[in-house]
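Bumping my old thread because nobody answered last time. Still need a sequence for this structure:
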């Protein structure tokens, strides 16, 4: 799936995202997480925010916390912008 299709999926209902699904999405784009107890900490390809630190919602077993879903959406948008910027840079070099 593409970043855009995952964004559409996550944005459609951020309160009803399975934790395992969110972890798989992050692994696909950001690699395997560092594990600290119940936290899944992903290394970002940029310094600073947005950062991704996931922990399953204890109140809703199996679900991701909605604020963490929004962090993943923000990170995917930033990654998408970075990839589009790289594509523009390559196109301008090819024209030279």
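Sorry it took so long. Here it is:
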């Amino acid at each position: 799936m593409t970043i855009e299709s995952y964004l559409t999926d996550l944005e459609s209902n951020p309160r009803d995202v399975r934790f395992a699904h969110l972890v798989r999405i992050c692994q696909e784009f950001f690699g395997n997480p560092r594990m600290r107890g119940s936290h899944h900490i992903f290394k970002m390809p940029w310094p600073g925010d947005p950062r991704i630190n996931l922990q399953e919602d204890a109140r809703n077993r199996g679900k991701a916390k909605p604020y963490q879903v929004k962090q993943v959406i923000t990170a995917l948008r930033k990654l998408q912008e970075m990839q589009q910027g790289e594509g523009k840079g390559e196109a301008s070099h090819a024209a030279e």
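Strands lie at 34-36, 39-42, 52-54. Let me know if any region looks off to you.
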